[in-house]
Amino acid sequence: MGLGLVVRPYDPARDADALRACIVEHQDFHRGLEPSWPEGKAILDDYVAYLERQCAERDGRILVADTGGEIAGFACVVASARNDSPDDPAVHAWLHDIFVRASHRRRGIARALMAEVEAVVRARGARELRLAVLERNGDAQALYRGLGFRGYVRVVTKPLD
């Protein structure tokens, strides 16, 4: 991790445009892995509102990775999530998103974001952190394994076209 990196809470007055740019790039990156996903600009307003609502309702936080005034990535985590199904009733923290812009990858930024994500949810009493990762995103899967995550549930899909 280079000098000048600060992971801090998202400030809408200061960071809104940068967060929106990250979300578009994030969604478009995932669309490259999973073509059924919509373009980033098509969902941008709804997705920002969704993340803000999730944070408000589930004790969450949006974090940004600030590299000397430039936002290199973001994460959104909630401290209290729960599945609707009675067979998995555990309350857990849920990482909605973590993303580092392509121009800033391989510098330890994702690890720094994850460290702060874990600190935030631990401080809020979470005892487990879950996330979802696209099957085709091998780099992210390797990062998560290296951070101590293990497989939990595997979702499979079949297009019916």
Reported CATH architecture:
3-Layer(aba) Sandwich
Average pLDDT metric: 93
The CATH homologous superfamily name equals Gcn5-related N-acetyltransferase (GNAT)
Strand % is: 15-25%
Number of strands: 5
Relative helix content = 25-40%
- Unreliable runs: none
Strand order of the largest sheet: 1-2-3-4-5
Succession of helices and strands? EHHEEEHEH
Taking all Cα atoms into account, the compactness measure Rg is 16 Å
- Termini Cα gap: 45 Å
Our count of domains comes out at: 1
What is the 3D form?
globular
Structural class: alpha+beta
Please give the count of helices: 4
CATH fold annotation: Aminopeptidase
CATH class term: Alpha Beta
Reported for the largest beta sheet, the result is:
5 strands, mixed
What does this structure look like?
The chain has 161 residues and is α+β, with helices and mostly antiparallel strands. The chain has a single domain, classed as Gcn5-related N-acetyltransferase (GNAT) (Aminopeptidase, 3-Layer(aba) Sandwich), CATH 3.40.630. The protein contains 4 helices and 5 strands. A 5-stranded mixed β-sheet has the order 1-2-3-4-5, sandwiched between helices. The relative contact order is 0.16.
